[in-house]
Write a structure and sequence with these properties.
Layout: E1 6-9, H1 14-25, E2 30-33, H2 49-53, E3 58-61, H3 72-85, E4 90-95, H4 100-110, E5 115-121, H5 134-139, E6 141-144, E7 150-151, H6 156-168, E8 176-179, E9 185-186, H7 187-198, E10 203-206, H8 209-220, H9 222-235, H10 246-251, H11 258-268
Parallel strand pairs: 1-2, 1-3, 3-4, 4-5, 5-8, 6-10
Antiparallel strand pairs: 7-9
This protein binds NADP nicotinamide-adenine-dinucleotide phosphate (NAP).
The site of NADP nicotinamide-adenine-dinucleotide phosphate has 26 residues, from helix 1.
Protein name: Putative nucleoside-diphosphate-sugar epimerase
Pfam families: NAD_binding_10
Organism: Hoeflea phototrophica (strain DSM 17068 / NCIMB 14078 / DFL-43)
């Protein structure tokens, strides 16, 4: 077992929190990477990067809010350089599924001179339980500009398991794993499965990109609205409606099904409406 800690950037987030828990359970030394960590890490304050990266063997890199935001590639490049200067052996990058901005960041990590694993992820199941779609689920109506396309919705537990393997086992060096769930689901089907498991009414409402943009403007302002609308335009057009074998290749097992995710979350009480 190595003595040097592993840095988990985004350690309080959906993927990062699971990676921290799993590494701790396996006995690895972990350094949490978030703005509230003991050694704070802030993407907007580059002076925090070297203290967070010093003395670590490897780093998990999940970018916030998304690799499609302006300046993301420059920050991934600068972070890779600081990591190299700090003697970090390996980076594990969480990426999208081939979007131009995400691929540009993958190429930066691939050419950083460090060992790397690239983890491409499909649309997260946990968007419905821990992300921005939890309030709409509780209100009974999930509205997305996704028409009737199908997505191989992935359980974040699987992404975390792949990242932990990549961070702790050099046999994953140089690999690109594209991680999907085992089944294609339309958002109407996903809503129906959540509804059945949670015992609450949940419906899916297809909306236009313009309607999505209008809603995001209210929540996050113009930049958030513009970038997330572009992400939806690029990703929710049906071209990702295929399964991949990333979980099988990395872990030698099948990915978790959306039905298991629904059962687990329903049992946790997260989808129970406050009285
Ligand atoms: N959702 C999806 O369906 C999907 C699919 C594929 C890929 N992805 C990618 O997943 C990534 C997000 O990962 P996630 O969902 O695991 O994270 P998340 O749940 O969105 O959590 C965000 C994390 O980033 C940290 N954070 C926020 N602002 C920060 C800042 N200025 N500096 C440093 N850390 C900051 C937060 O920590 P503190 O607030 O404590 O600082 C938290 O740990 C994005 O790059 C996204 O593109 C998402």
């Amino acid at each position: 077992m190595q003595d040097q800690p592993i840095l988990v950037i985004g350690s309080t987030g959906k993927t990062g929190s699971r990676i921290v828990k799993s590494l701790n359970e396996k006995g690895f030394s972990v350094r949490e990477g978030s703005r509230s960590a003991a050694i704070p890490f802030d993407w907007d304050q580059p002076e925090t990067w070297a203290p967070a990266l010093s003395g670590v063997s490897a780093a998990y890199v999940s970018y916030f809010p998304d690799l499609a935001f302006p300046g993301a590639a420059d920050k991934i490049k600068a972070l890779s350089e600081v990591a190299a200067q700090c003697g970090v052996r390996k980076l594990v990058l969480l990426s999208g599924r081939g979007e131009a901005h995400a691929v540009a960041c993958e190429e930066i990590v691939r050419n950083s001179g460090l060992a790397f694993t690239l983890v491409r992820a499909a649309w997260f199941a946990q968007n419905f339980s821990e992300g921005y779609l939890l309030p709409p689920v509780l209100d009974g109506m999930v509205a997305l500009p996704a028409g009737d396309i199908k997505e191989p919705i992935v359980d974040v537990d699987d992404i975390a398991d792949v990242a932990v393997a990549a961070l702790t086992d050099a046999r994953h060096d140089g690999e690109l794993y594209e991680i999907t769930g085992p089944r294609l689901l339309s958002f109407a089907e996903a809503a129906a499965e959540i509804s059945a498991a949670a015992g609450i009414p949940v419906h899916y409402q297809p909306i236009t990109l313009e309607q999505f943009h209008e809603g995001m403007l209210e929540i996050g302002g113009p930049l958030i609205a513009d970038v997330f609308t572009e992400i939806c335009r690029e990703t929710l057009d049906g071209h990702n409606a295929y399964l991949t074998d990333g979980v099988q290749r990395a872990l030698g097992r099948e990915p978790r099904d959306f039905a298991d995710f629904c059962q687990t979350v329903a049992a946790s009480g997260v989808w129970r409406k406050a009285a």
